[in-house]
């Protein structure tokens, strides 16, 4: 915006105007002091322009002095006094003119200041507008700067990426070139080596050539000698060919001989296999003739407390060739109080005295074991009161698990497995291949327990096993659900098996024996055989059963849990007797299912083709005489049974 005209004008006045203002101001200052009436100023005025001066004479610098002094005059001095008054009037006029002049100057000065102020205001607005513009510019410049900074950073990144790419490419190229260089160097070295080798071989060939030339000349002379010796050799070859043809004739004769002998061997082997089959049949005929339920009696030696009453032994073994008799005498008081003795004679298939060895016992049993291998179901029981030697007969002494145990003390189970192994190895030569699978269970309080399961009982004796139930498999065979089946792949495996079973077996103390087994244990071995040469097959089962103590309730002194155990044992033993009796009578219904034991053994017990052997074990002590009598009477009942005819069980 342009400044107003007045302002322009005054600017043109420039510094001279301002100077005038300054002078006026100083004059004003002087005028301001007028009230003080400085005397010398009036005197100066009096001498200057006089009171009649015009108001327009403002260019002069008026100095107003003090008012003229009024001199004392006579009253009639009118002219003097007039003169004095005129001087005062003049002074007053001067003073008035000076004041007006000062007033004008002050107005001008005020006007100038106003113009200046307007000018300053105008300048200020212009400057503010300029500052706004400048700020806008600064903002837009800053934004531009930020944008360009971003752009620059982007470009920088791109350049860095490109640079990195270039570096990588450069590095790869450098590596490739290095590799190429190495290859070239290597092939150069190889070429150099080849060159050296070729030169060397060339040299050698040259030498060889020279040598060959020499040799050729030597050989030419040798050839002549050789041709003559060749003629001699040909004559010799003709002679040898004659000998060779003679020998070929001899070899042909020998081949014929070998063929006829192989034929004879095959015939003999076939004959052997037939004889093996015949042996099996004969063996089983013998077994059948012996009866398919047999009873052996075994008397254990006197031990510990028994030995005290050794003098009054109730058991005697009468001398006889068959070694099959035993006599038990019982002393009792008659009505008159007199002691009377009564003898009870018994006869079984075989009686073993207290001195009998495990060897002798097994010898009698081994034929039945062979029957199981031939495909028959076989059951061997040990029956008798607690402590009468059942476990000893079936397994051996307590520490049976020790593999280094004296073999002479081993019982029927380890010996049976050993015999089966020995026989399967022999039979393998005649084409038989067998698989053996074992299980070991106990029946305790009419419940089946798996003796081969990792842990049968918890700390408190609680049963932790899956439920073991008896069922018929698809081939109609009696099996136990969830039972642990162990592949008996070596004779030694049976030691482990018996040790685990012994650990798990339920043992509780009773009045009858310090260690008393309160459950039936049943070791079952399934034997499946197949003959690849004859196509025959067999499937036998061997059950070895160590029954729980058979003592009566009164003598076991049982109560509480022990009473329950004894009742369960007695019931199952009675069921066993019932089953055997029903079989002997030829009953249509056999009460197998009345106890877990008979149900489990259904397939192997009297089902027409089975073979059963019962060991009745008795203690020789007088204290056990009554229990021994009961055991021998039970065994006699069993012995009187004749059940069907054993038939071989074909494999499925
Ligand atoms: N023929 C024997 N020769 C040597 N020791 C024997 C004989 N028979 C049994 N014994 C010993 O007699 C003790 C009792 O035998 P065993 O444990 O075999 O009796 P058990 O009828 O199985 O008793 P339980 O019903 O408690 O199982 C054992 O120490 C055993 O070693």
From TrEMBL:
Stretches assigned to coiled coil: 230-292
Region of interest: Disordered: 29-78, 142-164
Gene Ontology biological-process entries: microtubule-based movement; mitotic spindle assembly
InterPro entries according to UniProt: Kinesin-like_fam (IPR027640), Kinesin_motor_CS (IPR019821), Kinesin_motor_dom (IPR001752), Kinesin_motor_dom_sf (IPR036961), P-loop_NTPase (IPR027417)
Boundaries of every Kinesin motor domain copy: 292-641
Alphabetical list of Pfam families matching this protein: Kinesin
Annotated ATP binding sites: 384-391
CDD domains assigned: KISc_C_terminal (cd01366)
GO molecular function terms noted in the UniProt entry: ATP binding; microtubule binding; microtubule motor activity
Record's GO cellular component terms: microtubule
Keywords assigned: ATP-binding, Coiled coil, Cytoplasm, Cytoskeleton, Microtubule, Motor protein, Nucleotide-binding
Subcellular location: Cytoplasm, Cytoskeleton
Feature: compositional bias, Acidic residues: 54-63
Entry's family note: Belongs to the TRAFAC class myosin-kinesin ATPase superfamily. Kinesin family. KIN-14 subfamily.
Protein's UniProt name: Kinesin-like protein
Organism of this sequence: Coemansia biformis
Lineage, uppermost ranks: Eukaryota, Fungi, Fungi incertae sedis, Zoopagomycota, Kickxellomycotina
């Amino acid at each position: 915006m342009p400044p107003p005209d007045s302002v322009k004008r005054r600017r043109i006045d420039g510094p001279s105007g301002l100077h005038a203002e300054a002078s006026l101001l100083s004059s004003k200052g002087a005028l301001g002091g007028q009230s003080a009436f400085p005397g010398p100023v009036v005197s100066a005025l009096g001498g200057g322009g006089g009171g009649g001066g015009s108001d327009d004479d403002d260019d002069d610098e008026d100095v107003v002095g003090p008012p003229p002094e009024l001199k004392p005059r006579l009253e009639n001095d009118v002219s003097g006094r007039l003169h004095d008054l005129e001087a005062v009037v003049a002074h007053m006029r001067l003073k008035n003119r000076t004041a007006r002049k000062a007033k004008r100057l002050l107005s001008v000065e005020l006007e100038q200041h106003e113009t200046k102020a307007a000018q300053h205001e105008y300048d200020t607005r212009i400057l503010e507008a300029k500052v706004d513009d400048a700020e806008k510019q600064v903002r837009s410049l800053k934004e531009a700067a930020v944008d360009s900074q971003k752009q620059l950073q982007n470009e920088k990144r791109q350049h860095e990426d490109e640079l990195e790419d270039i570096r990588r490419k450069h590095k790869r190229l450098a590596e490739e070139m290095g590799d190429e260089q190495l290859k070239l160097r290597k092939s150069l070295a190889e070429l150099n080596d080849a060159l050296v080798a070729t030169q060397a071989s060339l040299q050698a060939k040259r030498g060889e050539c020279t040598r060959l030339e020499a040799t050729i000349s030597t050989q030419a002379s040798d050839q002549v000698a050789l041709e003559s010796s060749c003629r001699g050799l040909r004559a010799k070859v003709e002679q040898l060919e004659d000998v060779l043809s003679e020998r070929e004739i001899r070899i042909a004769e020998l081949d014929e001989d070998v063929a006829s002998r192989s034929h004879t061997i095959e015939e003999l082997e076939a004959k052997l296999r037939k004889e093996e089959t015949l042996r099996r049949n004969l063996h089983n005929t013998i077994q059948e003739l012996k009866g398919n339920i047999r009873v052996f009696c075994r008397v254990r030696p006197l031990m510990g407390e028994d030995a005290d009453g050794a003098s009054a032994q109730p058991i005697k073994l009468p001398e006889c060739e068959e070694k099959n008799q035993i006599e038990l005498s019982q002393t009792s008081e008659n009505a008159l109080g007199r002691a009377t003795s009564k003898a009870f004679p018994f006869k079984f298939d075989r009686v073993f005295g207290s001195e009998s060895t495990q060897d002798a016992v097994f010898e009698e049993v081994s034929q039945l074991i062979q029957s199981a291998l031939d495909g028959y179901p076989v059951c061997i029981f040990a029956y008798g009161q607690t402590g009468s030697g059942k476990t000893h007969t079936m397994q051996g002494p307590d520490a049976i698990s020790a593999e280094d145990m004296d073999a002479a003390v081993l019982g029927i189970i380890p010996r049976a497995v050993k015999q089966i192994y020995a026989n399967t190895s022999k039979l393998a030569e005649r084409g038989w291949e067998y698989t053996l699978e074992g299980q070991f269970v106990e029946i305790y309080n009419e419940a089946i327990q798996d003796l081969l399961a990792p842990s049968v009982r918890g700390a408190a004796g609680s049963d932790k096993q899956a439920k073991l139930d008896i069922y018929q498999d698809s081939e109609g065979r009696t099996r136990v659900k969830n039972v642990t089946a162990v592949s008996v792949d070596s004779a030694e495996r049976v030691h482990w098996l018996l040790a685990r079973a012994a650990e798990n077996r339920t043992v509780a103390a009773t009045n009858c024996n310090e260690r008393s087994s309160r459950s039936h244990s049943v070791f079952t071995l399934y034997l499946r055989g197949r003959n690849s040469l004859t196509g025959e097959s067999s499937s036998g089962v061997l059950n070895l059963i160590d029954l729980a103590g058979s003592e009566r309730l009164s003598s076991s002194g049982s109560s509480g849990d022990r009473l329950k155990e004894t009742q369960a044992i007695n019931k199952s033993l009675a069921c066993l007797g019932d089953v055997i009796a029903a079989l002997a009578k030829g009953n249509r219904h056999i009460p197998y299912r009345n106890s877990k034991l008979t149900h489990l053994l259904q397939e192997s017990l009297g089902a027409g083709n089975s073979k059963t052997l019962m060991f009745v074990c008795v203690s020789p002590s007088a204290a056990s005489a009554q229990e021994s009598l009961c055991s021998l009477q039970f065994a006699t009942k069993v012995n009187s049974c004749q059940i069907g005819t054993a038939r071989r069980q074909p494999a499925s």
